[in-house]
Every structure is written in C-alpha cells, then in structure tokens.
Design a protein that fits this description.
single chain; Neutral Protease, domain 2; 5-stranded mixed β-sheet; 4-stranded antiparallel β-sheet; disordered N terminus
C-alpha cells in the first residue's frame, strides 16, 4: 500500500509538471509576441520619421492605414504640406504608453519639429492608434478617439474631452438648422467633428507649417477644434458655426474649394457665426474695416484671395474685411441673392463673372458700392 501511495504521488507530480510545461508553451510565446509587436511598432515609428526627413511621400504613405476616407484625405494633406515649401528641417517621433491588443494598438505619439523657414522648435503629442495589416505588418491609423454618434454628426474626442463631446448633443441640432438655413443648403453626408486637447496637437495633426490654430476644415475633412476639458458647449457655438459653414460651402462645390476667394470663404463663415457670441463684435469688426478704408489701408482683394499665396502679415485682415463685405452684400441684395452668388462660384464660375450674373455688375463696381457703404460705418476712436 505504501509503495502504491508513493507511485501515486509521483504520478501526480509528473502530471503537474507536464501541465506546467504545457501552460508555459502558451504563455511564453504570448509574452514574446507582445515584445515583438512593441519592437515592430517602434520600428514603424522610426520609419515614419525617416520618411518625413527624406521627403519620401510614397514611402511614408505605405506605412499608414488609409482605409478611413476622412483620415486618408486629412493625412494626405498633412503629407503634401511637408513635401512643399514648408518642409521641415528637423522632425522626430517617439512612441510611449503602448498597449497592444491582438491586431490593434494604442500609444502616445510625441512629435517634435522645426520648419526650414523658422528657428523655433515645436512640440505636440497625440493619442495614436495602429492596426495590423493583412500582410502582418503594423500601420499608423491616426489618432485614438472616443466616438459619439448624433443625428447628422459624429464627434471624436481626444482623451479627457469626452464630457465636451457629450455636451454637444443638445447644441448641434439648433446649430445645424441655423447654418443650413443661412446658406439654404443641407448636405447629405454626416459631419465629423474632431476635438483636440491643445492647439499644438491640432496643428501637428493638420499641417506642420501652420501657425497656432484653434479650428480647421478643408474639403472632405472633419471639422477640427481645440477645446479644454469642461468647456461649456455654448461657448463653442461661434467656432462650430464658422467651421460648419466651410463644410457646407465645400459641399456645395462637390467637396472642393470651388472658385471662392479665400476672403469670401472666411467672410461668409464669419457672417454666419456672428449670430453667436459677443453681440458687440459684429459692429466692432465693421468699424475696424471702416477705419482701414479711412486710412487707405484696406488689403487688395487679389492679395487675400488665395490661402497658399496670402502673405502671413495679411492673415489678420482676411476675416474682418471678408466679413464686412458679406455684410454689405447681404444687407444690400438680400440673403437669397448672396446665396446664389455663392452657388455660382461653387460651380467654378470666377468672381467677376459670378458677380455679373448675380448682381448685374462687375466686381469692381460692387467693390465701389462696398466703399460707399463702409463710409457710413462708425470708425472706432484711436483711444
């Protein structure tokens, strides 16, 4: 009996050892696999960095998952930016806080860059997402978001901004009605909104050559905004109305810039957004532009018609001057005529031709009327 008992113990011990060995076969490769994935992700980020420094467009895009059409459009724009005159002289990417789960991963992507035309080093960080492609290799898939779906809107929030995204549910229906009613146009597509935690993060995700920005929209892209945690939804009314107006104008132009001059695109957006915010702001802007006229300092329209070509020193004039002109057109000819003017340029009709068709006069004559209208505006005192 004792011998049988002794043999039984050894059988149990042997079985336990075999079970542990079998368990190790499952555990060890898993740990090794996770380590391999992390190493591969760091290798991917290093390759992305080198492709930017080499201005290797195709090489960089081969490292990116472009299955989301909105992200594909946005990130291709990002690539075209550093391929152009605003190319970077220094660029670094670093990845930390990695978390890998099967065929997806998230982490914190830290970006450091310096433009050839600037001496300042800029820094930002983004919550990043990666996916494993069919070939087994990892691809960068853009920012990691928490997503909220509302009627006609999809809101993507960076970590810490979930409360702001949730608060937009009560604001968006009225805002949508105001903007679509102002332009007499309702788009078919759902509007994507992306909420960033800092201006540097928004700039880093949009175009490295941009100055500090707080809002952005381009054809086929999301509406991008910078907000802080706890930001009241109502305070976002003006910037959301501005960016949503851009979205509608691009939609009118079949997801393009149409032939709108830049000053007009910004002027219409400012005009529609002026229904919200400080009630004294519209009069202040009109007075500011009237002061420029009095000082013979208005910007030449041709100088502020192309975003890419407008000198940076004139950027501050684009919005007020465009806004004042849209006020003049709206008050003189009415909203319906103004919207027809916009529609004509949406289908690639040039400014002068569209002005003739909508108002029965060349743009030069319309501009002269604007000057007369401005002279009736009160000019702010120098004090």
């Amino acid at each position: 009996m004792q011998r049988l008992h002794f043999v039984s113990i050894w059988i149990i011990i042997t079985l336990l050892l075999l079970a542990m060995m079998a368990l190790a076969l499952f555990i060890v490769p898993s740990d090794a696999g996770a380590q391999d994935d992390e190493a591969d992700l760091h290798t991917l980020v290093a390759a992305m960095e080198q492709a930017v420094l080499d201005q290797d467009r195709s090489g960089y895009l081969a490292l990116v998952d472009l299955s989301d059409p909105v992200f594909a459009r946005e990130h291709t724009y990002w690539v075209e930016d550093w391929m152009g005159p605003g190319a970077v002289s220094d660029f670094e990417l670093a990845l930390d806080d990695l978390s890998v789960a099967d065929d997806s991963a998230t982490g914190r992507l830290r970006i450091t860059w310096k433009l050839r035309s600037d001496y300042m080093t800029q820094k930002a960080s983004l919550p990043a997402r990666f996916v494993r492609a069919e070939d087994g290799a990892w691809r960068y898939a853009g920012e990691a978001w928490t997503t909220f779906n509302y009627d006609r809107f999809q809101v993507h929030a960076a970590p810490g901004l979930e409360d702001v995204a949730e608060s937009l549910s009560g604001l968006l229906p009225e805002l949508y009605g105001h903007v679509t009613g102002s332009l007499d146009h309702t788009p078919e597509n759902v509007v994507q909104i992306k909420l960033y935690a800092s201006p540097s993060a928004l700039t880093a995700a949009t175009a490295l050559s941009l100055p500090t920005i707080r809002g952005w929209n381009e054809p086929g892209e999301s509406l991008k905004l910078t907000v802080r945690p706890g930001t009241p939804a109502a305070s976002l009314h003006p910037v959301l109305a501005h960016e949503l107006t851009h979205f509608l104008m691009f939609d009118l132009a079949d997801t393009s810039h149409g032939s709108y001059p830049w000053w007009l695109a910004e002027g219409v957006a400012e005009y529609v957004a002026s229904a919200y915010g400080d009630e004294s702001a519209p009069a202040g802007l009109r007075g500011q532009v009237a002061g420029w006229l009095e000082a013979d300092a208005l910007a030449d329209w041709n100088m502020i018609s192309d975003f890419e070509e407008t000198p940076r020193e004139l950027w501050g004039m684009v919005y007020p001057q465009g806004y004042a002109f849209v006020c003049y057109v709206s008050e003189t000819f009415g909203d319906a005529a103004r919207n027809e003017w916009i529609r004509l340029m949406a289908v690639e009709m040039a400014l002068d031709e569209a002005t003739q068709a909508a108002f029965g006069m060349p743009f030069e004559e319309l501009d002269q009327g604007f000057h007369v209208w401005l002279q009736a505006e009160p000019v702010p005192s120098a004090s």
